[in-house]
Each structure stands twice: as structure tokens, then as C-alpha cells.
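Weekly structure sync, notes
Attendees: PL (lead), two postdocs, one rotation student
Agenda item 3: pending single-chain targets
PL asked that the sequence for the first pending target be pasted directly into the notes so everyone works from the same version. It is reproduced below exactly as submitted, 281 residues in total.
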Amino acid sequence: MDAIDLVVFDVDGVLVDVRASYNEAARQTVEQFLGPRAGGWLTDGEMAALRVAGGFNDEWDVAAAAIWAQIGGRRDLAALARAAKALGGGLDGAVRAAGLGQEPAREQVLSVFCEIYAGTARVGEMYGRSPVLDVARDGLWQKERRLVEAAELLLLRASKAIYTGRTLGELRAAMERFGFGIHFPENFCLTGDGPYRKPDGRGLKYLAEAARATHVLMVGDNVDDFLTVESARQRDSARSYDFCGIVGGALGDMASDVFAELGVEAIAPSTSELLRWLRDA
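Predicted structure, written out during the meeting:
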């Protein structure tokens, strides 16, 4: 992977540890609809299994799948994930695989998730939504922690960009909190509420064209990140696109095996290790 002139980063699990924010917001969202349960309704392992299925890049869809499955009497979310994967993944795949009902509506689940993640005071600023919960709360985004120091990104000689499932409001909060904004101007950031959504390779192609790059490395922690690279390759034969999977993010303990099975170009134990490798390459 020599002569890389653009590195495109996912955010969650790559630049920012979100296990105490997005994962916890998904769990709390399920509890809002189903009530408390000893041991919880949704484990990190079950969330990882759904992400392996593909199409579950948004945690509110993970929460919706868990809610609909439990209401429908389907307790084995790992089995549901496997069935959904066979039908293309995502919430649509899960619904078709298990005949799931879709109540409460996804929009209701989304509203609750957004307030739990952003907090009552910032849900309007971050999502343009009004509060829906009975009791005001602080946002779980404040529990996120950085996975790389902003200064570490200075090691990278190539151009940098972001392609994330986060909304622009969510991304701005992370950029402000962790000081990443200096490295990623907004015109080099694609978010989930923009014109392209992963795994759409057109977004990666757009960033490559904007940076005038010929060899692009996408850095992600999820199956959808890899599928984005695959899609870009199919759409753009004029450039080279490679992928590096970061271990320990969205796919948890399954990451190394999943990335190896996909045949990715590189697997790194952390983003910091990858940045050091790129510096020395």
C-alpha cells in the first residue's frame, strides 16, 4: 500500500471510543420501550453480531431491531443477525428474515435515541429535534473518549478526510471536544445526513476527486466501511482503493476474524499503530 495520498477515516471506533455513548444509548433506548430487564436487553456481542450482518451502521437501527425482535418473541439476536445477513442485512433484512412487526415506528425509536445520546439540552442543536422524554437528561456523547491524539494525525503526510455515519451535528460535537477539526475541514467530511451514506462508494470517489488523490486508504471498524471500498472500486477504476480494519471497535472480539474473512488489505490493532506504520512506510 505504497504511495497513499488520501486517508479517509471513519470516526466511531477509529478516532473516538463510543462504547459508553452509542452502545449505551442503544441499550437505554431499548429499555425506554421495553422496560428494565435483569442483564439488559442488548449486549455488546449482540450489537456486534448485527453489525457483522451489514447495514447496521446506525445504532438507532440496532435498537429498533432489538425492540421489534423482543416484542415479536425473538430473543436470539445473533440468529436474527445471521438471517438478516442472508437477506442483504440492515433493518429491512431483519424485518424480512423474521417477519418482525414495526411498532413502535422507527421514527419514534430514532427520537428517543437522539435525546439519550445528545441530551435534552442539545438534541435540538445536534439533530433539530424536540425533546420527547419525560425527564431531562445529560447526553451520553459526553462519555466518549479519544482513540488518537490530535497531534498524532500530524504524523500523516497524506491528505485526510472523514466518511462517517454520524450526522453533521454529532460530528461537530466530536471535532470540538477532541480538537480534530483542524485536521478535517467540513468540506472534506461526509456525514450520514449528507448526499452519500456508507456503503455508497460514490462518497469515497467524491473525496478522492476533491483531494486529487490516486491511491485512497479507507480506515474503518465495520463491515459497511469495507463495503464502501468495494463499491468505490466498482465505480472508479481510475484510482486504487484499499481498506484497513481497526480491531476492537464496532465488531468487538470478532473484528480480526471478520476482516480476515473479507480479505482486507490490512488489519491494525489501533489507529495510533496504523498512523505510526504509515509514517514509517
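Discussion points:
- The chain has twelve helices and eight strands.
- Residues 19-141 form one domain.
Action: rotation student to compare against the earlier draft before next sync.
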